[in-house]
Amino acid sequence: MPGIMGSLKKLFIYEKPAPYNIQHGFELLEDQEVGKDKRRRTNNCQTDNCQTDNCQTSLDEVSVDLKLNLQSIRQLFNIPDNQDVIIRELSIARRLDAFLVFVDGMADKNAINRSILPPLMDNRNFEGFEGDCPLDFIVRSVISINQVIRLKEYDKIEKQILSGLTALFIDNCDECLIMETRGFEKRSIESPKTETVVKGSQEAFTENLRTNITLLRRVVKNKNLMTEMFIVGKTNNNNCAIMYIDGLVNKKLVEEVRRRIKGINSSFILSSGMLEQFIEDSPWMLMPQVLSTERPDRAVSFLMAGQVVIINDGTPFAMAVPVTFWTMFHSSEDSNLRWQYGTFLRVIRFFGLLLASSLPGLYLALELYHPEMIPTTLLAMIEVTRENVPFPAVVEILMMEVAFELIREGGLRVPGMIGQTLGIIGALILGQAAVSAGLVSPMLIIIVSITGLGSFTIPNYELGVAIRMLRFIYILAGSIAGFFGISVALTITGGLACSMKSFGVPFFSPVTPRTKINHDIIIRYPISYQKMRADYLNPAKAKRFGSSPRVWEARRTRKKGDGSR
Amino acid sequence: MMQEGKFGQIEATWLIIITMTAKVFYTSPATTMQILGTSSWYMTLISMLTALVGFAFCYLLLKAFPGKNIMEAYDAAMGRVFGFVFSLMLALILLVIIIINLREFTDVIKIYTYRESPPTYILLLAMAAVVTLTFLGLESIARYAKFIGYFVAFGFFFVVVLSSQNYELYRIFPIFGNGLKATFTNGLVRSSAYGEVVILGVFAGSLQGIKHIKRIGYISLLISGATVSLTLLSFTLTFSYNTGQELTAPIYMQASLIEYGSFFQRIEPLFFFVWNLTTLVSITALFYTVLLIYCHIFRLNDKRPLIIPFSIVVMSLTIAPESMLLVTKEYEQSLRTYGGLLFFIPPLAALVVAKLRRKGVKAKNA
Q1: Is the pTM above the cut of 0.80?
Q2: Closest Cβ–Cβ partner in A373, A377, A511 for B269
Q3: Under an 8 A CB cutoff, do B137 and A499 touch?
Q4: Cβ A499–B122 below 8 Å, yes or no?
Q5: What is the pLDDT of residues B280-299, one digit of tens each?
Q6: DSSP character string of A473-534
Q7: Does any CB of chain B come closer than 8 Å to the CB of residue A494?
Q8: Tens of pLDDT along A281-334?
Q9: Looking at the complex, does the CB of residue B137 fall below 8 Å from at least one CB of chain A?
Q10: Maximum separation of any 2 CA atoms in chain A, in Å
Q11: What residues 221-280 of chain A have any CB closer than 8 A to a CB of chain B?
């Protein structure tokens, strides 16, 4: 009672309001103080990393005064707040002050403990050294690390330390040594999960950039295989590599890839998927414009075709640019199989793609607008099974398609075998139950199942998603105007796809626009007939091999000719 | 501002072929059968040959003014005022073709399939595709034409070959139809059926040189002539003279007669795709051309803001005629009678004037 009275009283008596956060609990709003601080930091330091007011004292380059360097490193990495960055002070040969900086967990402690600290601290290793700065001497005679570089600029040093390398600062030296000590945990190479093949390599990329580059280098043992490293994401400083074969790739393409990657102004790029969205030509288009693969052998085939491969640290996928619709439609297995089998599989896949995109829409159009095309017996059967279904055909088909997509998505998110079981059991039970309950007709279950099977044949995940989305567009088009509606939707989507480009290459090349074909679009010629590289890539070397790649055959023919004479 | 872009010979050839042949799916075969009887299939070859000569004038004019499109060539040859009139005339005749084709298409598919739908509904859907493609630009239109070209060609030959079960050789006789004179005269007059080839002159800037224009123009005319002739021959072999002239959509009807066993029959809805796609591409190509000419004659740099208003104008003009009969009997007949003159005489006139006024490359060299 007093509580109610008190509340009523409060309605009429003025009280000083409680602070906002007491009234409403915690809310993450932009605070004026924080705003001020942000502005001040930006004005003074021009960097996100500086958090103190005396940051103006931080250096751009390594100083000969070790204390200043130490202070700068502390400011740079917010030590002691940031406890991941380790500073190890030491005396080199018991006379020169120095310190090591590395990131705990990123650097290999064994390498530091065995190959850096003991030789530096042993004064016998410095016999014969005279002078102030022993950097050269250390590199040549003391430490046993395979890769050491000298750096002056703090922004470069910072990125190297964050990548797992160790920096050595020495008193009286205006440079520091950056030593290769990367040794963080990483996943081992496993078999591909999304691009499985029967006949072909069973290796997939991992999250480690170096491992991925090595996987490619192991296959392409060519001195012209170039790797250029970039740092993307201004805050997370992620490493990204572009790879190409010099002398084979079109130089303009490499320049364009470089230009786009350097031109990314984003604070955070986590994965190749994010990078892809920053460098693609048309973000509003439905179709993918960059091809992602988890297979090193496929990435190698792109390199050999004159494409550029982009690998982002932290993602088990490599991206290839430029790509066309037909490249996405190919699988690495096509080349591993004889041409007849490869062609057959491609035709099956193409048929699957057509079914996946248009079958439900065509069925709907047939049933609603063009029943005359359905043979009478079949039409009668369809109508009988639909008799008890309470929904219009379009609702029925949308319901089943959405259910199918749910099962598919659910199956992907549930781990391992349970996911697969969920998919199969879910589809069986749901389909059977829906038919028994009279919610959908059996014919529709068949249509949706065939469509689903068709969509599984699409080898590229992104293209598969785009086709699934297109399917809904064609369903709606078929429901509003039958075949005419689908024709209109096809014209709009087809026109949009024809206007698309991937790094300057039209999406449907070499079909439209027509360029010289290399007999590897849908029908694949025998491998010895695929003499040319794709013309739309304008590679520096257009020929894959000489006029007679089967030299042994030519020799045998010549010998036979000689014998007959 | 929209970019017209560049495209290759093959894309351009497909675009022109589709633009010229789309009309064969409407009432044209029935009309020609009405006028000429059984000789329409080779009458169209005479029209095509006449159009080849007409296109030669256009080509010579463009050759005299290299790097210029046909509107610029008119301006250069005849001065701004007459150039304006000639270009406007071309735009108007193309606009009339758009209206006739669109109206015939709308009414025919309404009659055969969408009986309940109002014509504006069909028109709206068609214009949605046309407007989208126009926004994408000429390069995309040409690429899309090439993309669907294979499917369209396959669908067309599919119908022609499968219809062979209904062919009767006697239907081709009398081979001279209503007389050789009538066939020849109509062949000359009806050259406007291939008049759309002059849009190549409008797109000249997007093609790679005058030699390409010549090759594209001649090849397109020859292939279109052969295709239309084959269609008319197939139609003549399928329907008797009396029946054929009564049909609103003869090729559609021809497709509906295909029957191989009890299961493979009534495939006309599949043919429907061929029909729809060719019509949409053809209308888009003409729509874009008219827009391009309009922008040129009024010196407008950006076509984009005009697309939607222009599509509304086209829709309004399409539904304005009282009936389809009026469109086919009056408009189309007038177009076929005078169209050839409007398509091919202005380039000839401009060429003659250019010679007289010593304009153009040769005159300068001389």
Answers
A1: yes
A2: A373
A3: yes
A4: no
A5: 999 999 999 999 999 999 99
A6: HHHHHHHHHHHHHHHHHHHHHHHHHHH-EETTEETTTTTTTT----SBSSSBPPGGG--B--
A7: yes
A8: 999 999 999 999 999 999 999 999 999 999 999 999 999 999 999 999 898 888
A9: yes
A10: 124
A11: none
